[in-house]
Amino acid sequence: MTDFDFDLFVIGGGSGGVRAARIASEHGAKVGLAEEYRMGGTCVIRGCVPKKLMVYSSAYPGQVRDAAAYGWDAQVGDFDWLKFRGKLDAELDRLEAAYRGNLGRAGVTSYDARATIADAHTVTLSTGETLTTKHILVATGGWPFVPEFPGSELAMTSNEVFKLDKLPESILIVGGGYIASEFAGIFNGLGSKVTQFYRGAQILRGFDDEARGHVADAMQARGIEIHLGCNIMEMKEVEGGIWVKATNGEERVFEKVLYATGRVPNSGNLGLEEVGVDLGRKGEIKVDDYSQTNIPSIYAVGDVTDRVNLTPVAIREGHAFADTVFGGTPRKADHDLIPSAVFTQPELGTVGLTEEEARDAGPIEVYAAAFRPMQPLFAGHEERVLMKLIVCADTRKVLGVHLVGDHAGEMIQLVGIAVKMGATKEQFDATMAVHPTMAEELVTMKTPVRTA
Ligand code: NDP
Hints:
Elements: E1 6-11, H1 15-26, E2 31-34, H2 41-46, H3 48-69, H4 81-105, E3 109-111, E4 115-119, E5 122-125, E6 130-138, E7 142-144, E8 170-174, H5 178-190, E9 193-198, H6 209-221, E10 225-228, E11 232-238, E12 241-246, E13 251-254, E14 256-259, E15 263-265, H7 272-275, E16 298-300, H8 311-326, E17 340-342, E18 348-352, H9 355-361, E19 364-371, H10 374-378, E20 385-392, E21 398-404, H11 408-420, H12 425-430, E22 450-451
Parallel strand pairs: 1-2, 1-6, 2-3, 6-16, 8-9, 8-14, 9-10
Antiparallel strand pairs: 4-5, 5-6, 7-15, 11-12, 12-13, 17-18, 18-21, 19-20, 19-22, 20-21
The protein binds NADPH dihydro-nicotinamide-adenine-dinucleotide phosphate.
Residues 147, 174-180, 182, 198-200, 205, 231, 260-263, 309-310, 340-343 line the site of NADPH dihydro-nicotinamide-adenine-dinucleotide phosphate.
């Protein structure tokens, strides 16, 4: 018999928090969950889901042009942003209701309120209620970071981008990461004139160099103006949009400016410091392999811990936490060999080591092919797909796979299983090709393009 109101109180109704709450409840725990905004969190409400729907929307003009090249009497008409946005809002309402319904069916008590930690076993809600709990799970995610400079308040972030009243004719996107590069493709496809500023030498830092170059070249060929080694010094509101002064001396006006310069852990004003929870330099909650903080009753999962900031990772961390604490089966979330995709246009799919990382780890063979696939080639496109395998010369294991091209996200999920299982190059080669597909190239690359 517990002396607390709850066995577990979860702060944050995003991917990680909802999974943990549901599984803990299924294990028999009495669970409460507070969400201050909308159930579903960043991924569902203002991240992966609306982003992917915008990617689909933005790809149609290209598909219609291809259809014409294939003989259809088809032409690209006008895009009705408000019609799309209305449908998107309705879809997000549906998903939010589904999340709420799932929590309710699992027996979790939900609170539409902001929760703060009062002590190691107590939370207070913005409604004034105080609740006691044996365990607390913080799953509050992250928040867009915008650097401070004159006029920085004029920038929008990925939080606001889905709420635009109209599609901008011109947009400047600052940053070279996932979000900046994905939205560059989205707005370009929807018909905006897109300029992207990135402070470094090549976008998508951290990914395989050859793959980054391939994506950047293709984005530029599709009409995106990418300026490397470039940042903003100052912005001002002017008639027609936002005046921007860049570090390369250029001054230009854009209708909108989107900052996608990273995200920071959403750990402020939660009572964490007051109760003594260790935080890192960026404000991330420090946890062990079981997602436990230095305060034994307080745990944290997902982006607020700044481990690997991806939705499926938060879900696995939440699940492992609930099994460990309430299911009697202690287990860690596995952060090794996580496949992921960047929904740029073309897509980038990746798993394992980059060529640069693998080179440092020992002798490797690199297998790569860049070719024009059948479907776009027939429509008259020059764009090439890139497929690349990094193989350990000693063990023959495939250490990394990097794919750039349509459906790279779907392909990397499947090839990720083989890499996770430790498949060797010879086992890839022993797998019969599926013809005619793009992915058959993964099992037909015979000679390394280089060794290192
Ligand atoms: P990223 O960390 O991926 O990229 C941030 C970018 O902003 C980098 O290019 C960085 O440059 C640049 N930057 C940082 N600070 C400044 C500054 N002061 N001035 C100028 N540029 C700056 O963050 P995102 O916002 O793109 O995405 C956040 C997280 O969300 C990602 O880490 C990812 O995990 C997740 N995400 C995943 C997606 C997916 O799986 N498809 C999609 C969207 C997001 P530099 O490289 O020099 O540091």
